[in-house]
Every structure is written in structure tokens, then in C-alpha cells.
Amino acid sequence: AIRVRIPEHGELPPPDTIPLHPSTAGCRTPVLMLTARSTSKSRYDTTTPAEPVDVSTLFAAGWAWAAGGVVSTPADTLRFVRSYVRGDGFDQRSRRAQFRFRPGSSEPPGPGINSAGLALFRYDTEYGRVFGHTGNTSGYTQFAAATEDGACGVVVTATTQLSPGRDARTDALFAKLRAVYERAVGTALV
Asked: Quick check: pTM over 0.90?
């Protein structure tokens, strides 16, 4: 069942009961969270036939890769991506370099047709064009994007790590997540 609600400030739902949190702001609604209930335990590693293993305490997600220990909410991420894509804090030369795109995809792929720029991806969707980034690590998959002027933005966080190409089940789940990305862009832009 899918439901739409406005979250309370600072509210963080339990990750194993509400795994998808597309948030959009700046165009049609100030904040929108689309939530989907799930019976799956997304904090568990189910990649082997053995009993699922709880991986939620193996490391802090904010320590992964370039996160630098940052822990944020979808609303924080939305503010950041809108500002980043708009070019706040960048000189014009750097911004032009970011917006030189060539064929390429983010990993995991974002919605629509993906093109790669400098630390920024372009996503041409059926609803319009947005710029941003995707990523994932153990227990999370993220999509964050905004219009070029930063007026509209979208964030989708899934509390499970999904990338295509692992197995048929994961490919099917990722295809559904990519459809959520597309619909979230549509909610923000239409």
C-alpha cells in the first residue's frame, strides 16, 4: 500500500517498515514523502542462501566513501542538491565544467536517459530534465536531483542497497525503484 503524508520536523521512520522516502519540494508542494510499507527486513544481507545476517551495525553509513561522517535526512539532502545544482559556492568556470555532459550513467543508474558531467549527472526523464547524483552503500540507495536553477528538487532514499546486474530478483526490485525515481521527478516538475 502506498500513502502520502507530510512528515513532522525531524521525524525519522523505522527503516524496516518504511523503506522508500521520495521527497520533493519547490514546485507543487513544499515537502512530500511518499512511503511504501514493506514486510522485508532491508537491514539484512540476503545475498547468500544462508539465514539473513543483520548488517546494520557493521559500520556507520556516514563513514562510507566521501560521506565524511555526514548523516542527513531526505530534507537535508534536498536542500543540499538544490543548492549544489544551482551552483551556490561555485565560480562560473567550475559550473560550466560541471555542465559539460557526455554519454555515461551514474551508479546505480538514475531515471530516464543518463549523461555524465563533472560530479553531476543529467537525467532526461519523460517529465523533464534534472541534474544530480545516485549512490548506494550497505543498506541504502539514494537518488537526489534538481532543476538547473535549483527551484525544484527530488530525493528518493531506499533503505536497502540495490544495483542492477546482481540477480533477477534484484534487477526487478531496482526496476521498480527506478520507476519511483521517475514518478518522483514527475511529482516535482509537473
From this structure: no
